[in-house]
Amino acid sequence: MDGLQGLMPAPLARRGFMMTSLIAGFTMATERVEAQAIHTNSDGLVAGEMQVPVSDGTLPGYFARPVGNGPFPTVVVVEEVFGVHEYIKDTCRRLAKLGYCAVTVELYARQGDLSKVTDMKDIMAIVGRAPDATVMTDIDALASWAYDNAGDSNRLGITGFCRGGRAVWLYATHNPKLKAAVAWYGPVGGDPNPLQPQSVMDVAATIKCPVLGLYGARDPGIPPPAVEAAAAVARTSGNAVEIIEYPTAAHAFHADYRPSYVRDAAMDGWEKMHAWFRKYGVA
Fold first, then answer.
1. Going by C-beta distance under 8 Å and a sequence separation of 6 or more, which residues neighbour residue 112?
2. Confidence at residue 26, expressed as pLDDT on a 0 to 100 scale
3. Do 200 and 164 meet the contact criterion of CB atoms below 8 Å apart?
4. What is the rounded CA–CA span in Å between residue 256 and residue 38?
5. Does position 15 have pLDDT exceeding 70, yes or no?
6. Which residue of 112, 170, 193, 272 has the smallest Cβ count within 10 Å?
7. pTM for the full predicted model
8. What is the mean pLDDT of the chain?
9. How many angstroms separate the CA atoms of 33 and 36, rounded?
10. What is the tens place of the pLDDT at every residue in 37-63?
11. Residues 230-258: pLDDT tens digits?
12. Distance between CA 179 and CA 159 in Å, rounded?
């Protein structure tokens, strides 16, 4: 766990668990809306649910990649706090249309079923019970699944949203094989606790690859000065770190199923993400 010293996986309530399917629809969470701005079909793709072997069983996941043998550049997609619902699966298909093997996994399955939770406090309680150390090793397992299923182990990238953006920063300190990382409005601070003992700021100096951060300047929970401070620390690692702040956007501006969606910022961020992956050897 180089770069995340002090993170220890917490014991699980039961061993050998298995969830058989992903969350079928959208979590009934705060500010949910029914329609998505973007719907990506599976034409020319191989896509669907899968089970990802982890140390204590399996976790449900979703993948999308172009038709063919590959290997295709691998991109891990880290969910928000609302589970692997249609928006996250659609994001995987969008990446697959660009030529990637995109994979995601339900990181909070051990802690609870997010499809049955409606209150934001309850959602965060579930998410908060996931140890950072276990999140890191689960992402390792997801990447390994991709390598066994037409993903290229020499071209690994990661992107994630909200809490998933925080995981992107942390994973950039964890996996030396990672080529590039793109964090969408990932928190960089926070109070330490036994399960999440270090913030992004605490470990930023140990990143092992270039990191692009995409943030909304109007996000009340992630002040731009805090992001810039974390980026300054991260640059001491010797890796490229770029922060883009969209002046008209707040939090979750890429989430096209929520009122927070800001189309221009989302589209520009998407193009910059793809360019970042191309520049640093993922694409």
1. 126, 129
2. 42
3. no
4. 7
5. no
6. 193
7. 0.91
8. 90
9. 8
10. 899 999 999 999 999 999 999 999 999
11. 999 999 999 999 999 999 999 999 999 99
12. 12
Q: Which amino acid is at 229?
A: A
**What are the catalytic residues?**
162, 219, 251
Q: Is the pLDDT of residue 29 over 50?
A: no
Distance between terminal CA atoms of the chain?
27
Evaluate whether 120 touches 77 at the Cβ level (below 8 Å): no
Residue in this structure with the two tokens 């220890």, named with its chain if needed: 8
The answer to whether residue 12 scores a pLDDT higher than 70 is no
Domain locations in the chain as residue ranges: 38-279
Superfamily of the domain at 38-279: Alpha/Beta hydrolase fold, catalytic domain (3.40.50.1820)
Q: Return the closest-CA partner of residue 169 out of 130, 132, 131, 138.
A: 132
* Residue 228: both structure tokens together: 């810039």
Please check whether residue 139 is in contact with residue 56, taking contact to mean a CB–CB distance below 8 angstroms.
Answer: no
Q: Is the peptide bond before 220 cis (omega within 30 degrees of 0)?
A: no
Size (the chain), residues: 283
Question: What mean pLDDT comes out for the span 99-122?
Answer: 93
DSSP string, 154-208: EEEEEEEETHHHHHHHHHHHH-TTEEEEEEES--------SSS---HHHHGGG--
